[in-house]
From TrEMBL:
Signal peptide, first to last residue: 1-19
Name listed for the protein in its UniProt record: Uncharacterized protein
Organism: Paradesertivirga mongoliensis
Entry keywords, A to Z: Signal
Lineage, top ranks: Bacteria, Pseudomonadati, Bacteroidota, Sphingobacteriia, Sphingobacteriales
Length: 171
């Protein structure tokens, strides 16, 4: 009986670990989503993958880019209404990192009667076996050919989706 319980635990443990990692991904991505909506760019930067921050020119340059971009968007009358996250996908080993896709929908208001719905994905990256995650927003520019610039060990088994889209809806 005792051996049966150990054997069962041995079989179940990897699935419990994966479920915990996916919960952590979603929790940490939710922090980023709330920070984005609240214009807390220091928190957004804290959870942005370091390779993107380095590419932009460091934390100060990233802060300036986020602030300027969001100011320009606000001047055009666009505000972030909400960010909703889907369930994290499969987790892939990539060198000494873990990678995972996370669907997200960003709903923005444009004027009094329009909504913009941007359906896309985040790439979640962990360098410490799933304890902490950083994120990259998957854009048309960040595709299978350019992802390896930011993530040199990117696992090509993680297929980057091409179904990101933006819709304008009447209220």
């Amino acid at each position: 009986m005792k051996h049966s319980i150990y054997f069962l635990l041995f079989l179940i443990a990897p699935f419990v670990s994966i479920a915990q990692e996916k919960n952590i991904i979603k929790q940490q991505a939710t922090i980023v989503a709330k920070a984005t909506k609240a214009q807390d760019y220091a928190t957004v930067i804290k959870y942005t993958h370091p390779s993107l921050i380095k590419m932009v020119g460091g934390n100060d340059a990233m802060m300036k880019l986020l602030t300027t971009t969001m100011k320009t968007v606000a001047e055009q009358g666009i505000t972030i209404d909400s960010v909703s996250l889907g369930q994290p996908g499969d987790i892939f080993k990539a060198g000494n990192e873990l990678h995972c896709l996370l669907p997200q929908d960003v709903i923005m208001r444009f004027g009094a009667d329009k909504k913009i719905v941007a359906k896309g994905y985040l790439i979640a990256i962990s360098k410490d076996d799933g304890i902490n995650w950083s994120f990259l927003n998957l854009t048309e520019e960040l595709n299978n050919q350019t992802i390896t610039t930011l993530l040199p060990n990117f696992n090509q088994n993680l297929k980057l989706p091409t179904d990101s889209k933006m819709e304008v809806l009447d209220n």
